[in-house]
Amino acid sequence: MMKKRLIACGVCLWTAFCMLEARNEKPAVYKDAKAPTEKRVEDLLLRMTMEEKVLQLSQYVAGRNTNANNIGEEVKNIPAEIGALLYYSTSPRLRNNIQKKAMEESRLGIPVLFGHDVIHGFRTVYPISIAQACSWNPALVEKACAMAAKEARLAGLDWTFSPMIDVARDPRWGRVSEGYGEDPYTNGVFAVASVKGYQGNNLADGEHIAACLKHYIGYGASEAGRDYVYTEISPQTLWDTYMLPYEMGVKAGAATLMSGFHDISGVPASANHYTMREVLKGRWRHDGFVVSDWGSIVQLISQGAAEDLKEASEKAIMAGVDMDMMSRGYDKYLKELVGEGKVPMEIVDDAVRRILRLKFRLGLFENPYIRETTEKERFLQPEDIKIAEKLAEESFVLLKNKEKRLPLAADTKVAVIGPLGKNRWNLLGSWTAHGKDGDVVGIYDGLKLELKDPSQLLYAKGCDFDGKDESGFAEAVATAGKADVILLCLGEKRNWSGENASRASIALPKIQEKLAMELKKTGKPIVLILSNGRPLELCRLEPVCDAIVEIWQPGIAGGKPLAGILTGRINPSGKLPITFPYATGQIPIYYNRRQSARPHQGKYQDLTIEPLYEFGHGLSYTTFEYGDLKASATQLKRGDKLSVEVAVTNTGDRDGAETVHWFITDPYSTITRPVKELKYFEKQTIRAGETRTFRFEVDLLRDLGFIDGDGKRFLEKGTYYVQVKDKKVKLELID
Ligand code: NOJ
Fold first, then answer.
1. In which band, very low, low, confident or very high, does the pLDDT at 681 lie, cut at 50, 70 and 90?
2. Which of 3-17, 397-411, 677-691 shows the lowest mean pLDDT across its residues?
3. From residue 369, how far is each of 80, 144, 355, 362, 479 by CA, in Å?
4. Does the pLDDT at position 425 exceed 70?
5. First to last CA, the chain
């Protein structure tokens, strides 16, 4: 009897509790900003229907139609329960209207996540990533990313599809412009810098956005430099070359990753259980989410990995792709797949959890709307332009300076010639988000501001980027004849690199080379300014030029620092993070190749095997002398501490910045190692006549050790070398 009464009492209490809940008298835990994130996630997940979960895992697009009159139409077409949108607009109002629908018209009021490709700036466009790496200044890159995050968040974004950290060794591939070069560690360091810059310390502070490491993993190995194709990556290469930047980015707290389009040795990146579920989510315990690339789930069908969209969706979610970008497979088939027992409910719940977690971390439940500021308030702030300018300055690389042709003497008359001389649009580079050419200070513009006497500056276009029209040559030659020096501005259009922009030859089009040859005949010195998104084949141009400055695609603020370098106001300090082949036929060519069985043979019969400019190359207006390397110990045991130092003296007569690259060589080991591997770098400004010490704190396991084809790290006894330029110190690990 007593027991029955107790049960009845319990039931009554429970009913009362549920009624209170239903009447919303006690706020749901997920709505309580003070509750721990994980509790909020679990609470919300428990309330969600299958349909609501599936939509959380889907990403559509919005904001492409910029006509203000169509805002209503656009909002109508977006489901209130959608998880994320690829948001093309910069209108805070459109974003707020869409968000209002999600908050007020969906049953649970889950905010939408707005994402976009903010790759090298949002409106204040700064240099492309390959150029940023030339600065060897991660702190500056972090600042630039923070500024991009602020502009983006004020414009309505919560999430960027950046950084791209695909190690790339084939400059025919257009996307080399989007990453940080050929070296794993370099990509890793800039991954960390970008993640810190985008995300800051608090994603909910209204100034930061979630980062996305992409394209997980090995996309840079695209065969023959073509986009979207097969990649042949052995397990050893996967770990040696591609994993490190992702591991570093994940450890730095990257909120999301994007799975690639490509096939990794038979298992496409977007269906790869090993890389996503086992390594990323299992071993690295990443608690954020993986979004597919645009349509990379439906494309599993073209790749021959799935028979239809339903199977593709099953493979993708099982492998660990949490959000479907534009394949429309999850919203169509996930419910069915769960019903048929092909996809366990826990897998769906795990994916939903990851997405909700980020929304809570971004503070979207508390602050779903953004302030409707004016463009003037949110973009192109003077302090931001300064950052873009500084990064451009540090990313420029003085490739050649024969007989100190640069800097130019004060009264030099300069003939700016070439398709890039007055062109602004192409300096922006690919993925410029909302950059405008009207914001750009171009090459000619920068010189105009720098040179005191306007009569020092002449201009002729000479020719276009490509084509056969030589009708401008005569004017170019005549203009050159009136000047003391030719500033020849050649390079690539911005859409010649980036996604789906491969080139079979990395030489500049013949018309540009021909213009250079015609100008050479004038006998005037030629300073070549190059703007491009990939290393170029310069073997014909290099001999006719006295000096070469690589400015890549510097964004809006390249003109002034370039003028500063030309006149000597600024001392260049950039160094290459990627090899410049002598000719296209040498590709792939990169510094950290593995050792050869016959190092003195195996050459080409018809081409040198030496690159034109090697990894780390970059000149200064001053000179630096390196002392010998000093190791704190040369006989070591596991667990010992080791530091190696080098003194660098500025032996010239002006201040300059120098980057020291520290390499490790392991001449003999169970699994063969590359000829050398970058393990650390540091940049310091050194005054004229001053000596500064650079120090590398070596972690024996991390820096001398190596990994096998499943990521297991080893440290073997034997000989190692620490190397800086041509200086080496020999180490023995005796135990
Ligand atoms: C495809 C590109 O591969 C990827 O990098 C980009 O983030 C998405 N499209 C979204 O624009």
1. very high
2. 3-17
3. 15, 25, 18, 12, 56
4. yes
5. 76
CATH of the domain at 487: 3.40.50.1700
Do residue 332 and residue 427 come from a single domain? no
Indicate which residue's Cα is closest to atom 7 of ligand 1: 161
**What's the pLDDT tens digit per position in 458-474?**
999 999 999 999 999 99
Mean pLDDT over 407-413 rounds to 96
Find out whether the beta carbon of 117 lies less than 6 Å from any atom of ligand 1: yes
Place of tokens 């910045």: 657
Distance 587 CA to ligand 1 centre (A): 26
Q: Verify that 220 and 253 share a domain, yes or no.
A: yes
Determine the length of the chain: 735
Average pLDDT over residues 92-97: 92
In a domain, 614, yes or no: no
Report the pLDDT value the prediction gives residue 69, as an integer from 0 to 100: 58
Question: CA 217 → CA 260, 296, 308, 650, distances in Å?
Answer: 6, 13, 24, 41
Question: Are 726 and 647 in a shared domain?
Answer: yes
Q: Whose CA is nearest to atom 10 of ligand 1?
A: 294
| List of residues 6+ apart from 298 with CB closer than 8 A | 309, 312, 327, 328, 329
Does the predicted TM-score (pTM) go above 0.85?
yes
Give pLDDT, residue 75. Answer: 86
3-state secondary structure of 230: strand
- Domain termination site, one of 318, 336, 371: 371
**Residue tagged active-site, from 170, 183, 240, 293:** 293
479-512 pLDDT per residue, tens: 999 999 999 999 999 999 999 999 999 999 999 9
293 is catalytic: yes
Q: Rounded to 5 degrees, what are φ and ψ at 286?
A: -65, 130
Question: How many domains does the structure of the chain reveal?
Answer: 3
Confidence (pLDDT) at 12:
45
Is the CB of 214 inside a 6 Å radius of any atom of ligand 1?
yes
pLDDT value for 91: 85
> Are 408 and 305 contained in the same domain?
no
State whether the beta carbon of 294 lies less than 6 angstroms from ligand 1: yes
Could you tell me if residue 106 is inside a domain?
Answer: yes
In DSSP notation, 178-203 reads GS--S-HHHHHHHHHHHHHHHH-S-T
Give residue 120 CA to ligand 1 midpoint distance, Å. 14
Rg of the chain over all Cα atoms, to the nearest angstrom:
28
Token pair for 557: 């603020």
> Which residue has 């290469």 as its token pair?
237
- Tell me the three state secondary structure of residue 713: strand
Full residue range of the structural domain in which residue 270 is found: 29-371
pLDDT value of position 73: 74
* 228 pocket-lining for ligand 1 (C-beta < 6 Å): no
- Read off the tokens for 550: 């690589």
pLDDT of residue 4: 52
pLDDT tens-digit readout, 515-562: 999 999 999 999 999 999 999 999 999 999 999 999 999 999 999 999
Q: Are 349 and 267 found together in one domain? A: yes
The amino acid occupying position 162 is S
Report the alpha-carbon distance of residue 312 to residue 333 in Å, rounded. 10
Whether residue 400 is found in the same domain as residue 302: no
pLDDT at site 74: 78
Shared domain for 296 and 418, answered yes or no, is no
CATH number of the domain where residue 235 is located? 3.20.20.300
Q: What is the pLDDT of residue 118?
A: 97
How do 324-325 and 624-626 pair as beta strands? unpaired
Which residue is listed with tokens 């985008």? 198
141 vs 54, 145, 203, 434, 690, CA distance in Å? Answer: 37, 6, 19, 19, 27
**In which region does residue 450 sit, left (phi positive, over 0), alpha (psi from -120 to 50) or beta (all else)?**
alpha
pLDDT at 66: 58
- Mark whether 290 and 141 lie in a shared domain: yes
pLDDT at 433: 86
